[in-house]
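From the methods appendix. Each design record in this collection lists the tokenized structure first, followed by the designed amino acid sequence. Records were kept in a plain field format so they could be parsed without special tools. The example shown here is representative of the layout used throughout.

RECORD:
FOLD TOKENS (117 positions):
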């Protein structure tokens, strides 16, 4: 029985060693998976940072373009207002010229009448 006991103990010890080796192998595989995951995560974070920087740059560019568009729109509005004022001034000037011509005609008629008397 002693021999059988030793055989069982040896078999049990070998089984435990095999089990311990499998556990160690599994542990190493898990550590490798974690290391690969950490590397992948780091690379993805780096890519996301680059994308965020590019997006920020594009947002800043869009803000500058929008400001330029707003300034151009303001300039157009001011020019339209100036054009409207100039049109009103031209209209007023035409009316003033017509009035001056009418007054000149009346004056000339009066002068001719006085000369003819």
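DESIGN:
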């Amino acid at each position: 029985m002693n021999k059988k006991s030793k055989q069982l103990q040896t078999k049990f010890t070998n089984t435990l060693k095999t089990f311990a080796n499998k556990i160690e192998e599994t542990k190493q595989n898990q550590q490798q998976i974690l290391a690969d995951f950490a590397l992948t995560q780091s690379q993805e974070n780096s890519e996301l940072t680059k994308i965020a920087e590019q997006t920020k740059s594009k947002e800043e560019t869009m803000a500058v373009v929008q400001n330029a568009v707003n300034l151009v729109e303001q300039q157009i509005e001011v020019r339209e207002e100036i054009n409207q004022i100039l049109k009103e001034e031209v209209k007023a000037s035409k009316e003033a010229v017509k009035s001056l011509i009418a007054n000149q005609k009346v004056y000339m008629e009066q002068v001719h009448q006085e000369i003819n008397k």
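APPENDIX NOTE: Helices lie at 2-116.
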